[in-house]
Amino acid sequence: MSTTTIPTTGRAVVAHGAGDVRLDEVPLRQAAADEVIVEVAYGGICGSDLHYWLHGAAGESILKAPMVLGHEISGVVVRAADNGAGPKVGTAVAVHPATPAPGAAKYPLDRPNLSPGCTYLGSAAQFPHTDGAFSRYVILPVRMLRALPDQIDLRTAALIEPTSVAWHAVSRAGDVEGKTALVIGCGPIGALTVAVLKRAGAARIVAVDMHAKPLEIAKAVGADEVLMAGDAEAIKAVEADIVVESSGNHHGLASAISGAARGGTVVMVGLLPTGPQPVLISLAITRELELRGSFRFNDEIDEVISALADGSLNVSPVITHEFPLERAMEGFEVARNSAESGKVLLNFASEA
Q: Which class for 352: exposed (0-12), middle (13-18), buried (19 or more C-beta within 10 A)?
């Protein structure tokens, strides 16, 4: 597309409140000198997008004004930055949606994902909210962009952001090579975690979910065994060195603790609801388990891109559905049904 044909507005998926997500025409603001205009190709519907739609909030991030959703995107640069930095027109890109920022709270400087003022595309954590990228065109700073090698197509590239979340979770576990790994919850993040564990050399990967479809996807990306979530004895018998909890509920966390071997490590990437949660903490104590949180990611996105480019990371089975932008709400309905879907993509370039 020529840069002279970029319109001043574009269609976007906008959350107005609980149960109220619309396809609105939004204005395209003026780009700063260090920003580019990206024509979005694909966007993956994330759990946080679903929460804003269904509840008007994602955890403690509550909608106070309309906000463009979406942070898992790929696209093509259609106008380069005026200062000459970053990718040129025609470059296919993935996006790192975080803007780390210091604040009053203490945090490790080498872990900017924990910076207290950090903003994220499509997040209501701050006010004014940070608009997301579920828009036909989006203006982004060059620091967020990662040029894609020819080996990665734009459709697959929509998985780079959630795969980076999974990569970070696995890195929080330490060296997994030759070890037994247990993944609780095989939605998109759980399934991508299985794929990352496979590439990292885990000797045995056991995946757990409530439904057959997510377990089918987990097998396709590298799980050696699958178990139904209700099979408590089988989960306990795994005795995993590494457990990744990605279900985001206390039942999953209980399974993660019970399925861990003595002295094992439990990485918690599934975000549980705010407030007190019942936890098998006595078992974690007597088994000397290490419980580690995992939140978003930092530079792992670059490792993910390299692994996808060299073919050592298999993630394509995680994509189960694709909808044109005009049918975005149909896509959201499918994405909320975790029994029948994996990652649901919106295709911003196609016509209905």
A: exposed
| pLDDT at residue 44, rounded to an integer | 98
| pLDDT-derived band at 127, boundaries 50, 70, 90 | very high
Strand partners, 75: 40, 93
Q: How high is the mean pLDDT of the chain?
A: 95
Average pLDDT over residues 182-190: 98
Amino acid symbol at 120: Y
Nearest 5°: the CA angle 71, 181, 167 is 25
The separation between CA 155 and the C-alpha centre of its own chain, rounded to angstroms, equals 15
pLDDT tens digits along 191-202: 999 999 999 999
CA separation, residue 7 to residues 28, 32, 46 (Å): 8, 17, 27
The model's pLDDT over 216-239, given as tens digits with 9 standing for 90+, comes to 999 999 999 999 999 999 999 999
For domain 167-293, give the CATH superfamily. NAD(P)-binding Rossmann-like Domain (3.40.50.720)
Domain 3-159+315-347 adopts which CATH fold? Answer: Quinone Oxidoreductase; Chain A, domain 1 (3.90.180)
Query: What pTM did the predictor assign?
Result: 0.95
